Amino acid sequence: MELTLKIWRQAGPTAKGELVTYEVKDISPDMSFLEMLDVLNEQLIAQGTEPIAFDSDCREGICGMCGLMISGEAHGPERTTTCQLHMRSFRSGETITIEPWRANAFPVIRDLVVDRSAFDRIIQSGGYISVNTGAAPEAHSVPVPKEKADRAFDSAKCIGCGACVAACPNASGMLFLGAKVTHLGELPQGQPERGGRVVKMLETHDLEGFGGCTNIGECAAACPKEIPLDVISTLNADLRQAARGAL
Ligand code: SF4
Ligand code: FES
User: Fold this and answer.
1) Distance of CA 88 to the CA centre of its chain
2) How far, in Å, from the CA of 224 to the mean position of ligand 1?
3) 99-146 pLDDT, tens per residue?
4) How many angstroms separate the CA atoms of 161 and 183, rounded?
5) Rounded distance between C-alpha atoms, residue 87 and residue 32, angstroms
6) Which of 176, 182, 210, 218 for mutating ligand 1's site (highest number of atoms within 8 Å of CB)?
7) What is the Cα 136 distance to its own chain's centre?
8) What is the DSSP string of 90-118?
9) Pocket test for ligand 2, best of 68, 78, 83 (most atoms within 8 A of CB)
């Protein structure tokens, strides 16, 4: 495959950025999107040009590091992470635009790399859960209904990639926050701090500069882990109950 790439280049957080055009050849349809960028970077290094900075770690769809806006879609045309996106999803001769996540809460560090530590601060503000960390408890001593266990596990699949924020016109982090609140709120172990946790995490979400949810749904459509929109309903319900002192 041969491709034309328009890639966002920005030397640092306060530098002016611009889209720069590159041509790449000999791209296999079986390469991942990041492997295609590796080929381009080898080409740039051989030419004595600064390679393109982009984030990745596991390259297995687990860590959430690799998010890119690809031709206007978070993680590109497939519902997966950028590292699990393959070049067979594109046509030879195509022009692909590659940009970093665009959100005030995710400032650009360099080129395609953004600072997503705002997500870490939201999680930190939720604090700890009060569980006895002594010897492993007997498995049946805390019964958890299957539907609640399933919903908790499904919510815990969120990898903090930030695609929901990048896809949302309000740059809201409510799908991420809803997933975090729901995965603890469904379990008995998450009950003692449930009300305080949702209030503190939402306060941090707003202070970090994420926008509010207006029920557009782009977040859930872009989420590679298929976190459903109803975690935001759970978040709002918990918040209402906490405000009434019922949690
Ligand atoms: S909710 Fe989905 S899109 Fe948002 S951070 Fe979690 S995994 Fe990524
Ligand atoms: S590099 Fe870990 S999810 Fe893509």
Assistant:
1) 23
2) 7
3) 999 999 999 999 999 999 999 999 999 998 887 778 887 878 888 999
4) 17
5) 6
6) 176
7) 32
8) S-TT-EEEEE----TTS-EEETTEE--HH
9) 83
Main-chain phi, psi angles of 99, to 5 degrees: -130, 160
Q: Check residue 75 and give left, alpha or beta (phi > 0: left; psi -120 to 50: alpha).
A: left
Distance 142 CA to ligand 2 centre (A): 34
**Neighbouring C-beta atoms of residue 87, cutoff 10 Å:** 21
Per the rule left: phi > 0, alpha: psi between -120 and 50, beta: everything else, 245 is left
Q: Which residues line ligand 2 (CB under 6 A)?
A: 56-59, 61-66, 81, 83
Q: How many whole angstroms from 161 Cα to the centroid of ligand 2? A: 8
CB of 74 closer than 8 Å to CB of 105 = no
Q: What is the pLDDT of residues 29-86, one digit of tens each?
A: 999 999 999 999 999 999 999 999 999 999 999 999 999 999 999 999 999 999 999 9
Q: What's the CA angle centered on 72, arms 66 and 73, to 5 degrees?
A: 55
Q: What is the pTM of this model?
A: 0.95
Point out the ligand nearest to the CA of residue 165: 1
Question: Position of tokens 């997503």?
Answer: 116
Q: Which one-letter amino acid corresponds to residue 13?
A: P
Residues 81, 224: contact at Cβ < 8 Å? yes
Ligand 1: residues with CB < 6 A are 158-164, 175-176, 179, 222-225, 227
Domains of the chain: 3-99 (3.10.20.30), 115-130+144-244 (1.10.1060.10)
Ligand nearest to the CA of 37: 2
